[in-house]
Structures are given as C-alpha cells and as structure tokens.
Amino acid sequence: MRDLRPAGWDIKTYRDKPSLQPEELFLEKIGSPVWEKEYRAAGLRQISAKTRRYVYERDGHMCRRCGVSAGEAYPDDVSAHARLTLGHVNPHKSGSGSHAEDLITECARCNETVKHLTGTQMTKGQVWDRVKELPARHKRDLLVWMKADCRPLSEAEKAWGMYRQLPAVVREELERDLEALMRS
Ligand SMILES: [Zn+2]
Predict the structure, then answer these.
(1) C-alpha span between 135 and 111 (Å, rounded)
(2) Which of 104, 36, 100 is nearest to 66 (CA)?
(3) How far apart are CA 162 and CA 70, in angstroms?
(4) Dihedral over alpha carbons 26, 32, 35, 37 (to 10 degrees)
(5) For residue 43, what pLDDT is reported?
(6) What's the number of domains the chain is made of?
(7) Could you tell me if residue 25 is inside a domain?
C-alpha cells in the first residue's frame, strides 16, 4: 500500500473513513499501473541509499515537522524516543517522487500523523491556549512554520542534530570542550 499511494492510488483505511472497520480498506481511486515497467520507478519508493543519507544530512538528522532529533525523547512523552524516517514533503499529492527535493526527514510519529491526518491526542483548544500566550515574535515564527509545514533549522540546531549522532562518551567530551572554549 505504501508503494501504491505515491503512484496515485487512493486507498482509505478506517482512519480516513469512519464507516470502515479497522480491518477494511476502501479503494477510492485507481492510480498508475505500478506493475508495468515504466511506472515501477515512480510507484515503488526506490529511494537510493545516497539520497537517504543526503536528506538526513540536509535536515540535520532532525524531524522537520516537530524538531525532535534521532533517539531524543518527545517533550510531551519522555518515555517515547524518536526514530527518524523519510516522508514525502506533500504526502497527499499523488505521484510524489523519490528525489531528495520530494523528501523530508520525519520522526515515525509525525510520519504517521501526516499520512493519516489523525493520531492526535491534543485538542485545538489546548494548542490554541498555548499559541495565543506566545510573545509576538514567537507567533510570527510559528506562522512561518505552519505555512511551510516544517520548521527550518538554525545553525545551532543543525549542530545539535549532528552532536546527537555521536556516542554518549564522545558527546560528554564535546560538551566539556565547548564549556572550556566558552570560558577561555
Ligand atoms: Zn516529528
């Protein structure tokens, strides 16, 4: 199914269509014939290892939707640690390709939420209460992120994403080095 959706197949699950049972699927629209040779590359998500590496590096090894980095705990659920994956920039547009510009680094949780547009435990009111209390500067930042549907990374955040890739002992060394550098 994951291979059919990018090829324009619109298959609904109970998450999209409340009338369906969890084990039922509903075929809304037939897409490209992915079993034909000329459609195979577009339909199957053949993302090369090189593209994968490039996208993770470009995105600073952080989820571009929520900003969590690999292995980091979620601010609202410290028991869950983020696992990064690749998603389509626009998952609901059919025929999304497997080129770096069509792809975005996402954590597994955002990947699921973006795909199904559900999985949210928050209410609009809860989020709005938080949003309206933000200082004007943060409101402006947030609006830019909302419009882009992703959060641009600062240089410090990119460095943080790289730092998180290091083993724990090396991270401790680096922390001490930075402390020493800033004291000197
Ligand atoms: Zn995320």
Answers:
(1) 29
(2) 104
(3) 10
(4) -170
(5) 42
(6) 1
(7) no
67, part of any domain: yes
- Chain segment 15-55, per-residue pLDDT in tens: 777 787 777 788 877 777 666 655 554 444 578 888 899 99
The residue assigned the tokens 């419009």 is 147
The domain of 127 spans 47-183
Residue 159 Cα to ligand 1 midpoint, Å, equals 18
Taking 50 as the pLDDT cut, the residues of the chain under it are 41-44, 119
- 63 CA → ligand 1 middle, Å: 5
Structure tokens at 141: 């930042």
C-alpha of residue 116 to centroid of ligand 1, in Å = 14
* C-alpha torsion sign, points 43, 46, 51, 57: positive
Residue 70 has what pLDDT? 85
